[in-house]
């Protein structure tokens, strides 16, 4: 949830769209999340957002785009980052068009995102990339991929629903695709959390499948999205090499 952090009053900043693109490779997943917010207040605001992505996750990319300006995250020591963020906000708080962002880990897997100096009517696009080790589900003999509900909470659908006047599926704030690339043939893919809301597309390679969330009647995540991927020989040792072009 994104909140306008005023001194004596905290207001919800509407989440207008969420896009998730994930790639699961055996026991590892790379997740790219895009969230779009809009400042409907009459004044500039500093917004703060806390979210959970799992205690085995590591954030490896962060971008914030305001209008045509993109801020790209750089990893620095925690206190140095905080001091530089506060300095920028204090200097440019009265200069329209200037802003700063700060992403920090509050606890294991709990991150806090601060975006300063958002002007009235301005939209902010936040992109976060993280990698996470996914666990083996002994009950189904599958790997369990979890997408936390905090990336698209119920609160984010409020403004969107007020804007809707029909069931036109073109207006939809939650959209994601998961590509499953396993070492061996995929035997089954299912979602115990959303069994009726996913589509599975298989390609010629039996080790690869594409999972999408059906848009109809899905406006937010009420609970975590869980995907179980069962493939052959998942318990065998393996190694991967990633090329950096």
Question: What are the main properties of this structure?
Answer:
eight-stranded mixed beta sheet, 245 residues, 2 helices, mainly beta, Immunoglobulin-like, elongated, five-stranded antiparallel beta sheet
Q: What is this structure, in a nutshell?
A:
The chain is mainly beta. It is 9% helix and 49% strand. The protein has two helices and 17 strands.
Write the layout of secondary structure elements.
Layout: E1 2-5, E2 10-13, E3 15-25, E4 28-38, E5 45-52, E6 57-66, E7 69-72, H1 78-92, E8 100-107, E9 110-118, E10 123-133, E11 135-137, E12 142-147, H2 158-163, E13 174-181, E14 186-190, E15 198-202, E16 208-213, E17 225-231
Parallel strand pairs: 3-13
Antiparallel strand pairs: 1-2, 1-5, 3-4, 4-10, 5-9, 6-7, 6-10, 8-9, 11-12, 12-17, 13-16, 14-17, 15-16
Protein name: von willebrand domain-containing protein
Domain VIT: 1-132
InterPro entries: VIT
Average predicted local confidence, pLDDT: 77
Strand order of the largest sheet: 7-6-10-4-3-13-16-15
SSE arrangement, N to C: EEEEEEEHEEEEEHEEEEE
Number of helices: 2
Write down the CATH topology. Answer: Immunoglobulin-like
Write down the Rg: 20 Å
From the N-terminal CA to the C-terminal CA, the straight-line distance is 36 Å
CATH class: Mainly Beta
Query: Could you describe the largest sheet, including whether it forms a barrel?
Result: 8 strands, mixed
- Low-pLDDT runs of 5+ residues are 155-172
Shape: elongated
CATH architecture: Sandwich
> Helicity, in percent?
under 10%
Number of domains: 1
Query: DSSP strand (E) fraction?
Result: over 45%
Please identify the structural class as seen in this structure. mainly beta
Number of strands: 17
């Amino acid at each position: 949830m994104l909140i306008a952090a005023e001194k004596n009053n905290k207001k919800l900043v509407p989440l207008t769209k969420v896009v998730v693109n994930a790639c699961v490779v055996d026991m590892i997943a790379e997740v790219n999340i895009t969230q779009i917010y809009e400042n409907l207040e009459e004044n500039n605001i500093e917004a703060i957002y806390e979210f959970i992505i799992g205690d085995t996750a590591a954030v490896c990319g962060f971008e914030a785009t305001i209008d045509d300006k993109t801020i790209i995250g750089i990893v620095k020591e925690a206190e140095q980052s905080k001091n530089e963020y506060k300095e920028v906000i204090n200097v440019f708080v009265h200069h329209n068009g200037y802003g700063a962002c700060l992403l920090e880990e509050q606890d294991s897997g709990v991150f806090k995102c601060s975006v300063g100096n958002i002007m009235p009517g301005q939209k902010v696009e936040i992109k976060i990339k993280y990698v996470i080790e996914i666990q083996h589900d002994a009950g189904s003999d599958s790997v369990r991929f979890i997408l936390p509900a905090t990336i698209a909470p119920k609160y984010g659908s409020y403004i969107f629903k007020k804007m809707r006047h029909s069931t036109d599926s073109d207006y939809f704030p939650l959209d994601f695709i998961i590509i499953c690339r396993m070492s061996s043939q995929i035997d089954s893919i299912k979602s115990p959390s959303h069994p009726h809301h996913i589509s599975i597309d298989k390609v010629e390679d039996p080790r690869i499948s594409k999972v999408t969330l059906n848009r109809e009647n899905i406006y937010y995540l009420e609970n975590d999205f869980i995907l179980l991927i069962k493939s052959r020989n998942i318990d065998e040792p393996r190694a991967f090499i990633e090329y950096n072009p």
